[in-house]
Write a structure and sequence with these properties.
Low-confidence stretches: none
CATH superfamily: lambda repressor-like DNA-binding domains
Distance between the termini: 15 Å
Shape: globular
CATH class: Mainly Alpha
CATH architecture: Orthogonal Bundle
Structural class: mainly alpha
Order of helices and strands: HHHHH
Largest sheet: none
Strand content: under 5%
Length: 86
């Protein structure tokens, strides 16, 4: 098993986070402020320099006004699609 940060699944997570943030109309810095995190936190997550755990995924979705449950389901479907392509 490869490290998730360098996997296709890791890329899907990064893409999902960016999509949720952009749909909310937030810049990376604005989202960091809402989360009470350092100003580079979201940038590092979206660039793949930092992993995002499930709790952080939940908080990011909530801060963006997105349903964490719905976004996680979409992400799991995208993971399944990757497996079917392999």
């Amino acid at each position: 098993m490869q490290k998730t940060i360098h996997s296709q699944q890791g890329q899907l997570i990064r893409d999902k986070l960016k999509e949720v943030r952009e749909k909310a109309g937030l810049t990376q810095r604005e989202l960091c402020r809402k989360l009470g995190r350092e100003h580079t936190f979201i940038s590092k997550c979206e660039l793949g320099e930092r992993r995002v755990d499930i709790a952080e995924f939940y908080w990011i979705c909530q801060a963006c006004g997105a349903s964490p449950e719905r976004e996680a389901i979409r992400l799991m479907k995208a993971f399944a699609d990757l497996e079917q392509q392999a």
